[in-house]
From TrEMBL:
Keywords: Signal. Pfam families: But2. The keyword S-adenosyl-L-methionine does not apply. InterPro entries: Ubiquitin3-bd_protein_But2_C. Residues 1-20 form the signal peptide. Residues 42-185 form the Ubiquitin 3 binding protein But2 C-terminal domain. The keyword Signal applies. PANTHER family: ANCHORED CELL WALL PROTEIN, PUTATIVE (AFU_ORTHOLOGUE AFUA_4G08960)-RELATED. This is Ubiquitin 3 binding protein But2 C-terminal domain-containing protein.
Length: 199
C-alpha cells in the first residue's frame, strides 16, 4: 500500500513537471506599422539570381540573398481579381533580431534598389540572371535598416475589369553596398520581408 501511495504521488506530480514553462508576457513590440492584417499577401515565389552565375537557376526559396554586384532576389506577388478598384500597399518589414526569430544577416549601410518588372511578368522557378522578366516601373531606391517598416509603394492594384486570374507583380531587391540574407516569414514574431496589403 505504501508503494502504491508513493507511485500515485509520483504520477500525480508528473503532469506538473512536464508542463512547459510559460514564456511570460513576451510582448516585444513590432516596428511602427510593422504588423499586417491577416489578409496581407506574402510572396508566391522568391528566386535569387546571381550576376556572377548568370545562367544558374537557384529555384524557389524562403531565403532571400542580396550581395554587392552579385546576388539580387526576385519576389513575385499575386494580386487577386478581388483587388479591383482597391489600393495596394507594398511594404518591406524589417524587425530587429529581438522582434523576430527569423534568420537574417545584414551588413552594410543598407542602400537598396527594387528593380520592378512589367505588370503581369514575374519570375518562375527556372529564372536566372539572364532570363529575368521584362523590366517595368520601379519604386524609388530605399535605405532599409533593422527595426523599421517601409512603405515602398501605394497605388491602384491595377486589376482590370473582367479579370478572372491573379496578376503577378514582381521585382528584384538589389544592393551595391550591403550584404543581406533573410528568411521571408510572418510566423516567427514580427513579420519580415515583402508584403502587399489591399484596402
Ligand atoms: C503608419 O501608417 C499610417 C497609415 O498608413 C500612416 O499614416 C503613418 O504615417 C505611418 N507611420 C509611420 C511612422 O510610418
Ligand atoms: C514557393 O515557395 C513558397 C513558400 O514555401 C510556396 O508557398 C509557393 O507555393 C512556392 N511556389 C512555387 C511556384 O513553387
Ligand atoms: C470599379 O470601378 C468602376 C469605375 O468606377 C466601376 O464601374 C465598377 O463597378 C467598379 N467595380 C467594382 C467591383 O467595384
Ligand atoms: C551597382 O553598380 C553598377 C555599376 O556601377 C550599376 O550599374 C548598378 O545599377 C548598381 N546597382 C545598384 C543596385 O545600385
Amino acid at each position: 500500500m505504501k508503494n502504491l501511495a508513493l507511485i500515485s504521488i509520483l504520477l500525480a506530480t508528473i503532469p506538473t513537471l512536464t508542463t512547459p514553462f510559460k514564456m511570460g508576457n513576451c510582448d516585444t513590440s513590432c516596428p511602427t506599422n510593422g504588423t499586417l492584417p491577416d489578409s496581407a499577401l506574402s510572396p508566391s515565389l522568391i528566386i535569387p539570381i546571381s550576376a556572377q552565375q548568370p545562367t544558374r537557376a537557384f529555384g524557389n526559396t524562403t531565403l532571400a540573398k542580396v550581395t554587392p554586384s552579385d546576388f539580387c532576389t526576385i519576389f513575385n506577388l499575386e494580386i487577386p481579381p478581388s483587388a479591383i478598384n482597391k489600393t495596394c500597399l507594398l511594404a518591406f518589414l524589417f524587425p530587429t533580431h529581438e522582434q523576430t526569430t527569423a534568420f537574417y544577416s545584414f551588413a552594410g549601410p543598407g542602400d537598396f534598389v527594387f528593380n520592378g518588372y512589367a505588370y503581369g511578368a514575374g519570375a518562375n522557378p527556372g529564372t536566372t540572371y539572364e532570363t529575368q522578366p521584362a523590366s517595368g516601373p520601379s519604386p524609388p531606391a530605399a535605405k532599409l535598416v533593422p527595426g523599421n517598416a517601409y512603405v515602398l509603394n501605394v497605388g491602384s492594384c491595377g486589376v482590370q475589369p473582367g479579370q478572372t486570374e491573379a496578376v503577378t507583380v514582381s521585382g528584384a531587391l538589389c544592393s551595391n553596398d550591403t550584404y543581406f540574407e533573410f528568411e521571408q516569414t510572418r510566423e516567427k514574431g514580427c513579420p519580415i520581408g515583402f508584403y502587399v496589403a489591399i484596402s
